[in-house]
Amino acid sequence: MAERAGAERIAGRRKPHLDDRTCRLICPIAAGMVGVCLTTIGIIRVAIRARHIHTLADDLLAVDAVLFLGAMLSSYFALRVQSVMRHHRLEQIADVCFIIAMVVLTIACFIVTYWVDQ
């Protein structure tokens, strides 16, 4: 822990400490969300064929699955890496990917909700 505290000060700037538990939480949740996105894409594709219309939601969910995969992989590698600087950077990438993916998922939910009402 002392090694991490000393390495937080890089190039005269103090980096905020990120909790290791974040990576342990993001990794399985993001992996599960990839499955949710893929399942929803499949359901939407069945509905598209039945109704003969198109929606942007399945495309958004495909991008979302990639974002969740990026969050999962970066949090996984953050748990495995030995370098404190790399660990910090990978945690930040995992956080950003996860938050962006959640926003995209929410947008896709709105599209699906209003698309079903048509």
UniProtKB/TrEMBL annotation:
Transmembrane parts of this sequence: 23-48, 60-81, 93-116
The organism's place on the tree of life at top rank: Bacteria
Keyword line: Membrane, Transmembrane, Transmembrane helix
UniProt-recorded name of the protein: Uncharacterized protein
Organism: Sphingomonas aurea
